[in-house]
Amino acid sequence: QVQLVESGGGLVQAGGSLRLSCAASGRTFSRLAVGWFRQAPGKEREFVAGISWSGSTIHYADSVKGRYTISRDNGKNTVYLQMNSLKPEDTAVYYCAGTGTYGSTWSSVHAKDYAYWGQGTQVTVSS
After folding, report:
1. Which residues contact 17 (CB under 8 A, 6 or more apart)?
2. Cβ proximity of 18 and 27 under 8 Å
3. From its phi and psi, is residue 23 left (phi > 0), alpha (psi between -120 and 50) or beta?
4. Which of helix, strand or coil describes residue 49?
5. Position 27 pLDDT exceeds 70
6. What are the tens digits of pLDDT across the range 36-63?
């Protein structure tokens, strides 16, 4: 079993930055592919960024490319999401998700491919 805990959310003005963290426990973190998803009120959950367990494969949603950076520190069992140039439309609950089923270069944009989910952290961007 894997437990994922997000942190780092909060309220920020448009143009500002936040760094989210996803800390994992319970299973060898270095073999977990991790994705970040978000869900705004009244909208479906959407993919934001994903990273393979080796770190060699990274995906971003078009809406965050050039503004967000996903990274991981396997020694600290943590994946990060650095969010810059934030916009009001980035406001959402952000979730990290993980799965250990696939190979070192695997990463997915689909929520159904991830087995473990955190509780989410709220990010609010004011205009």
Report:
1. 82, 83, 84, 85, 86
2. no
3. beta
4. strand
5. no
6. 999 999 999 999 999 999 999 999 999 9
**Quick one: tokens of 105?**
């270069």
Contact yes or no for 11/124 (Cβ under 8 A): yes
Tracing tokens 């437990």 back to the chain, one arrives at 3
pLDDT digits 0-9 by tens, 70-126: 999 999 999 999 999 999 999 999 999 999 878 888 889 999 999 999 999 999 999
* Euclidean distance between CA atoms 12 and 119, whole angstroms: 21
The pair of three-digit structure tokens given for residue 11, joined into one six-digit string: 């309220």
Nearest to 36 by CA among 115, 95, 101: 95
Size of the chain, expressed as the number of residues it contains: 127
Give the start-end residues of each E strand in the chain.
Answer: 3-7, 10-13, 18-25, 33-39, 46-51, 58-60, 68-73, 78-83, 92-99, 116-117, 121-126
Contact 13, 90 (CB under 8 A): no
Per DSSP bridges, beta strands 33-39 and 92-99 are antiparallel
Residue 83 burial (CB count, 10 A): 26
